[in-house]
Specification:
Largest sheet: none
Helix content: over 70%
Shape: globular
Structural class: mainly alpha
Order of helices and strands: HHHHHHHHHH
Number of helices: 10
Distance between the termini: 20 Å
Radius of gyration: 16 Å
Length: 246
Amino acid sequence: MEILLILIGTLVGTLSGFFGIGGGMILIPLLMLVGIDIKIAIGISVLQMVFSSFYGSYLNYKKGSLVLGDGIWVGVGGFIGGFIGPRISEALSERTLEYLFFGLLVFALYRLFGAKAEHTEEVKSLNPIVLFVVGVTIGIFAISLGVGGSIMLTPILAGFLHYPIKKAVSAGLFFVTFSSFSGLISHIGIGDIELTKALLVAIASLVGVYIGIWLKDFVTAKNHKRYLMIMYIVALLILVKKILLG
């Protein structure tokens, strides 16, 4: 099981760096596939997101692809929302969490489908209070499901605020640093993190993050969007298999 968790962590870290996600939307179905129940998988996912998002955001900033700006306000909101999310996941049944997670993936895929890979028009900016509220909302909903929130935020940035897809991806991962850190504090308080398994996955993911961010420089924005959509579809299929077949 240990070797399997290390391989899963490396894979998820690569996807996290390449797609700017916390990794939970892929990690949770994979952990469920190897026999870990969803509530334990959520706790493991949150710790992994802390590791991958902080390291990934640092690498993106060094490369110049991370523009802080609006991300600070959304991130602070996500930090607060991340404290509330674990209380929600604790109160809901496993089946309810699975259906909510399914709905989250469908929404993200729908919004991403309509977003342009590259934008020639000026990037929009919103009122800081609006951005803060958006961050709180995404943080509550995402952390309760064990994901960082970038799968909701990235389509919003690309579809509504006209961020180029690669900058939206970097901003999405930056958001995860806020939401996942506060979510981790809450999960530790609840006591639902299996630390040994979580650390194996999280440390292995750091290697993957470096690989993923390195690979991102070699693909066009159009192909990057195409690969991102494929990843959402794969996650949906894994989750559907778990819901239907157990």
